Amino acid sequence: MGTPDFAVPSLRALAKADCDVSLVVTQPDRPRGRGRKPAPPPVKVAAEELGYDLIQPDTVRTDAFIDTIRERRPDLLVVVAFGRILPKAVLEIPAYGAVNVHASLLPKYRGPAPIQWAVINGETVTGATTMLMDKGLDTGEILMQSKLEILPSDTAGDLHDRLAVAGGVLLAQTIYGFRNNTIRPVPQNHADATYAPMLTKADGHIDWTRSTQAIESFVRGMTPWPGAFTFLDQTRLIIFKTAPRPGDPDAVPGTVLPGFSNELRIATGDGALAILEIQEASGKRMPIDIYLKGKSVPTGAVLR
Predict the structure, then answer these.
(1) Does 179 score more than 90 pLDDT?
(2) DSSP alpha helices (H): ranges in the chain?
(3) Do 227 and 138 have their domain in common?
(4) Based on the domain organization, do 176 and 119 belong to the same domain?
(5) pLDDT of residue 282
(6) b vs e for 235-263, b when ≥16 Cβ sit within 10 Å of the residue's Cβ?
């Protein structure tokens, strides 16, 4: 059971591990792009390529859906970024339980946005966890974990791609452990739990009063989605890449500081950041030197 790009490496890992994938469950096709034409989720595309049976239920809470799963008599359910909360009646069907691949080192960063929040919060290490699902949100017993370094240049998108692969590898190892009876589930220490809440587009608004390092991490954690942004007058600017620079301690945060002609240097709460890649709401993403050839951003202007 999975839907987005993150779940595809796990599905392919099951295929390489010679598992009998009797059914793939993913969400329905959704309108995408400017034309709003229905497009299949990435897991559907991969499942069809691999030749697996596939269903796309609108809900997982009907008797018909539950009966469909029960008829397959699965040993395991594997759930990776499915996007639906499974009812108890479904979780109780498989002989060995439901295994979830989660993109953090649980119990840290439970919830729907563990990758973004790990980058936003300046973490240097994260990882993937396989766990047995229960009625809670990412609260089940831990099966296996693997650690992954967060590089200083990593965006949430970069980390997403590496964790998706790491999650697939860990899933294959977990399945091997079930086959060889070496898996020993370990309860989570709930006292150490942290939560990674869902992000919206509004959450990407940059607060220039924060420290240089905090804003730089924020921009990386919001890239590519939901996107870090600021305003110059009424113009919404999406910021993709920044770098620390010396600043004026007396400047109001958000103020455009003097710099090189091909540089946009902004005062922060404790220094300055140079904006390296930028996009206007209706424009294209571009390096800052190209952007400044067509746009004038005067020293002393204030981003908000």
Answers:
(1) yes
(2) 8-16, 42-50, 63-72, 88-91, 114-120, 156-179, 212-221, 288-294
(3) no
(4) yes
(5) 83
(6) eebbbbbbeebebeeebebbbbbeeeeeb
User: How large is the average pLDDT for residues 253-279?
Assistant: 95
- Using the 8-state DSSP alphabet, how is residue 145 labeled? E
The mean pLDDT value for 138-157 works out to 98
Long-range contacts of 254-259 (CB under 8 A, 24+ apart): 254/208, 254/209, 254/230, 254/302, 254/303, 254/304, 255/300, 255/301, 255/302, 255/303, 256/297, 256/298, 256/299, 256/300, 256/301, 256/302, 256/303, 257/299, 258/299
- Residue 100, pLDDT > 80, answer yes
Residue 302 lies in a domain: no
CATH number, domain with residue 261: 3.10.25.10
- Write down which residue in 134, 168, 192 finishes a domain: 192
Mean pLDDT rounded to a whole number for the chain: 96
**Is 301 a member of any domain?**
no
Give how far the C-alpha of residue 167 lies from the chain's centroid of Cα atoms, to the nearest Å.
13
Note whether residue 276 is domain-resident. Answer: yes
Q: Supply the pTM of this predicted model.
A: 0.95
Instruction: Dihedral sign for Cα 19, 22, 27, 29, please.
Output: positive
> Using DSSP, how many helices (H) and how many strands (E) does the chain show?
8, 14
Write out the H or E segment, with its range, that includes residue 228: strand 228-232
Same-domain check for residues 67 and 152? yes
Which tokens go with 93? 């069907």
Q: Please give the residue range of the domain that contains residue 249.
A: 201-294
Query: What percent of the chain is modeled with pLDDT above 70?
Result: 100
Asked if 85 and 167 sit in the same domain, the reply is: yes
